[in-house]
Amino acid sequence: MTPEPVLEPDIVESAEEAARLSRPPLLILQPVRELLDAHGLGSGVLRAERVGTGGGSNFSFLLERGSGERFVLRRPPRPPLPPSAHDVVREARLQMALGALGIRVPTVHAVWEEPDLIGVPFSVSEFLEGDVVSDVLPPWLGADPQARRSVGEDLVDALVEIHAVDPSARELVEFVRPGNYLERQLRRFTDLWGRNATRELPLVDDVGSRLAAAAPAPLPDTVVHGDYRLGNTIVAAGRVRPIVAVLDWEMGAIGDPRADLGYLLATSSEPGGEPSPLGTSPVTATEGFPTRRQLVSRYVERSGRSLERLDWFEALALWKAAIFCEAIYGRYRSGGLTAADAAAAHFEAAVPAMAAAAASRLATLGV
Questions:
Q1: What distance in Å separates the CA atoms of residue 220 and residue 66, rounded to the nearest whole number?
Q2: pTM of the predicted model, to two decimals?
């Protein structure tokens, strides 16, 4: 039987308070306040609240100081963690490199690489005004189909900007890896499935083998976000470019740009169409948002790239999502999440459904 989520606080004031808990909290305010003071990031009382989702991805916290300043802290889930996963230090460095190259990302103010302050490394970035859109449209989007169209189109345009960055720029040298990005992705996620699986799901293994057997020749490398979707952006009303910033660079890399297009298509619902197998970005089914075909057409027009085998990249996105969502489900089953993450129970059925959707995409290719 799955244990009930533990109702202990995620945020505590001091290390002494943390030591009295049965498991480590996610945030200890005293050392964070001292770090902010040392970097000249506000002053006075520090308040914090968790924002966004977590459990499998890195956690985000809104920090508010008595002097009125606001910041965002990012940290990984509770250990133990798979090798190379949830690396907030690498994520922050990539974000800093992309900011220097003109990409729309929040400014990183501080990075703490050691686990001595709150038990794990973490980063602190600027807070940007706007909305993160997931399940509900903010009023300004809900009332205006043209605003929805503008957001959908700028979502593509921001991705074109990311893919236009020179991957050989000196700021990105540390993120370049030898060999084929797609082969590395297949190896990495096959290994993660061996670590993440909580049950026998032969279809996940089967899809991985079929992806490897039919992997396309790579396009020239670009910066790849790795989790590119509406819910990983900040949007704001009254702007020519409503995408204020692109968030969550945990899976960012140098690789094949079609991986981002495949992920965007796999996570997008469309007006009059079927819901996304991932259950993400359901609001894009609202009239006004571009269709999947329109997203691809705009990307091709703006980037000048010819896109082929996108069904394969959608299948890759769905297969990868099944694997990292199984990790979230495993944390839920083991009692490693809080009550705020109880929705992770739906991955019991969603993970097999994602694998089935990936298999369906491959079938369109005759694979």
A1: 49
A2: 0.92
Residues 163 and 257: beta-carbon distance below 8 Å: yes
Cβ–Cβ under 8 Å, residues 333 and 2: yes
Residue 23: phi and psi, rounded to 5, are: -145, 155
Bigger pLDDT: 332 vs 208: 208
Q: How many helices, marked H, and strands, marked E, lie in the chain? A: 11, 11
pLDDT (0 to 100) of residue 1? 46
What mean pLDDT do residues 125-147 have? 95
Answer whether residue 31 is part of any domain: no
Name 125's bridge partners: 72, 108
Which domain CATH number covers 232? 3.90.1200.10
Give Dmax over CA atoms of the chain in angstroms.
62
What pLDDT does 152 receive?
A: 97
Q: How far is CA 177 from CA 297, 308, 352, in A?
A: 30, 24, 32
In a domain, 37, yes or no: no
Residues 251/226, Cβ–Cβ less than 8 Å:
yes
Distance CA 266, CA 325 (A): 15
The percent of residues above 90 in pLDDT, for the chain, comes to 78
Structure letter (DSSP) for residue 31: H
Helix (H, G, I), strand (E, B) or coil at 197: coil
Is there a domain that residue 270 lies in? Answer: yes
Q: How far apart are CA 69 and CA 103, in angstroms?
A: 24
* DSSP conformation class of 125: E
14: Cβ–Cβ under 8 A, 6 or more apart, which residues? 28, 29, 30
**35 within some domain:** no
Express each pLDDT in 231-263 by its tens digit: 999 999 999 999 999 999 999 999 999 999 999
- C-beta of residue 342 within 8 angstroms of C-beta of residue 287: no
Total domain count, the chain: 1
d(CA 123, CA 60): 10
Q: How high is the mean pLDDT of the chain?
A: 92
